[in-house]
Amino acid sequence: HFAQEIEQFLNVDSFLRFLAVNTVLVNLDSYLGTGHNYYLYHNTATGHYEMIPWDLNEAFGNFQMGNVQQMLSLDIDQPSAGKKFLIERLLKIEKYKEQYHADLRELIETHFHPERMSAEIDRLYALIHDAVVVETHNLYSAEQFAKCLTENIVPERGPGMRRIFRRGEPFDQQEQNTVRRAPPPPPPFMNQEISGLKPFVANRVASVKAQLNGERKGYIIEAFRPGFMMRREFKGQPDLNQRKGED
Prior knowledge:
Layout: H1 2-9, H2 12-25, E1 38-43, E2 48-53, H3 68-72, H4 85-91, H5 94-109, H6 114-134, H7 142-147, H8 161-164, H9 197-212, H10 228-234
Helix pairs in contact: 2-5, 5-9, 6-9
């Protein structure tokens, strides 16, 4: 009954491709993980709803709900953090699961094939390299930028971090000449280690292929805890909303 009804409302083919791409990229700052960064668009020409992703800067396993190796081995049949009922119900239907697996296989054999991705990474690196080198507000150094193409890196402050967080901001317009927030220290990095781009592609493709062939089980994220980033980021730091003298 669900399979008959869902196709009247949702573009299932498009959603399964959306799911395949996000799964391969381990893009968890999305519907799969945090449950946001997408639009549900009603296409009036077809009468169906479409999933449109946005804000993809945490792809390539960079929004980590586990360590690097766990992100690389994210389970293809349970790729979400906790329960996402639409994914769960669709993949319980065999024809949709087979179609989704076919989408995954096509992706890793074509657009996300390591050789093709390596060439594209090199092209984009050359395109933006000079701008990265002269940028003074980087979160990461130019050396880390270059290294992360081929190796995992441990985050360190880039040259622009001190400048970015140097000044506090007024509480509001009326107080801008008298009261200012204490300048916050740079927040800690969320990730202890970041996967290099080319190693990520090669290892993720190997993991997805092995799972498709039934040779390996994937890593399952039990649940996403809303607010965990903020608790982690500001743990042990002063309350930036507390005014001077209000102890």
